[in-house]
Specification:
37% of the residues lie in helices and 18% in strands. Strand 3 and strand 4 form a beta hairpin. The chain is an alpha/beta fold. It contains 13 helices and 14 strands. The protein has a 7-stranded parallel sheet, sandwiched between helices. The structure holds ligand FO1.
């Protein structure tokens, strides 16, 4: 820990898509001098029309680079869908996943570089050069590992479909019996990921989907272990406010793994890194601190009883100022814990 007068120098955040990216804008504003590394979820990645699409990496890149579509939260601002319409005119499937014309340029560059043998981490670094995101964006792994969801399929029978088909085509309306990261066993953390976690002054879990974003990153062998080892405080921000997900369909994902859609339940699911309960034995969780919204204040004591420090703060990212306050609260909770250590 080499704290500058203004706080931590090295911050590492695990991030998914839209909620995580929005939080990162506040984190940058709250710690402008810090070096921020973002470990991005790649379980959502998919081959579409021969192009490799990395939705969560692109959402972070576009959001921090100022190119995101504000109303969609994904894809580009000022977007057109001429190619998508032309593909549909040819009757080419899938038509349920729309690639914008500007967005396609990103996927063309990525696909060309991957075909030339560059690892996804090098591709991501190259793409981010244009966007000047202000952070170092690392994929969780350079290997292919994609989230699939086991559903009762409309055509009958139970089968695994790609996360994007479940999320976009079916709007997560099909009951998810299991959510599986296909390829996880052969995946390893991308270059720099373990170091970014173990050499951080603070590790942050933004309010991303705890199952298909944060949970997916934790399934890459070695990443959860790094979180248990790092000397940095690990602080999470609840994605559940007032018993409901702030956006997206985290409730459909949480019920798939038998976790209640509640701020305290998600903290218990992540688990305490160091339990304060003497009889608790060795904790194998990842959290030292947890931010919950004022609407869930009654959950604070149960979270603390798990051995996780808990602060109650407004957690709705209504604007940059609100998000910056959330990030500052996470950083001050971390510095408080470091002083205790
Ligand atoms: N989400 C949709 O609901 N409909 C789409 O057609 C769609 C296309 C799309 C294209 C590129 C991209 O990066 C994201 C896209 N998304 C779309 C969002 C995507 O499903 C989500 O951003 C993540 O996978 C979940 O966080």
């Amino acid at each position: 820990m080499h704290p500058t007068s203004m706080g931590p120098r090295r911050i590492t955040a695990l991030a998914g898509g839209i909620g995580g990216a929005r939080f990162l804008r506040g984190l940058i504003a709250a710690a402008p001098e810090a070096d921020i590394t973002v470990i991005g979820n790649t379980g959502d990645d998919i081959w579409i029309h021969g192009l490799r699409v990395c939705p969560d990496l692109d959402t972070v890149m576009y959001t921090l680079g100022g190119g995101i579509s504000q109303e969609r939260g994904w894809g580009r601002e000022d977007e057109t869908f001429t190619v998508k319409d032309e593909l549909a005119a040819y009757g080419v499937e899938p038509t349920w996943f729309g690639l914008g014309d500007r967005d396609i340029a990103t996927h063309l560059v990525r696909t060309q570089m991957l075909n030339a043998g560059y690892p996804l981490s090098a591709v991501t670094e190259a793409l981010c050069t244009r966007w000047e995101t202000g952070v170092r964006l690392l994929p969780m792994t350079d290997e292919r590992a994609e989230t699939h969801v086991v559903v009762d399929h409309p055509d009958g029978g139970r089968r695994a479909i790609h996360f994007q088909e479940w999320w976009v085509r079916y709007q997560a309306s099909l009951t998810a019996h299991a959510i599986v990261l296909v390829g996880a066993d052969d995946a390893k953390p991308a270059p720099g990921v373990v170091e970014a976690i173990e050499q951080a002054d603070v590790v942050i879990l933004p309010p991303s989907n705890p199952v298909v974003s944060i949970g997916t990153i934790l399934q890459v062998p070695g990443i959860r272990e790094s979180l248990s080892r790092t000397p940095a405080p690990v602080i999470g921000v609840s994605p559940i406010v007032g018993g409901r997900p702030v956006r997206g369909m985290a409730d459909a994902c949480l019920s798939a793994i038998g976790v209640d859609t509640a701020a305290g339940a998600v903290a218990a699911h992540y688990g305490a890194r160091r339990t304060l309960i003497p009889a608790g034995g060795a904790a194998d969780g990842i959290l030292d601190g947890w931010l919950i919204d004022t609407a869930d204040a009654e959950a604070a004591s149960a979270v603390r009883a798990l051995g996780i420090a808990c602060e109650v703060r407004p957690l709705l990212m209504t604007d940059l100022e609100a998000t910056t306050a959330m990030a500052s609260a996470a950083l001050s909770l971390a510095s408080g814990l470091r002083q205790q250590a």
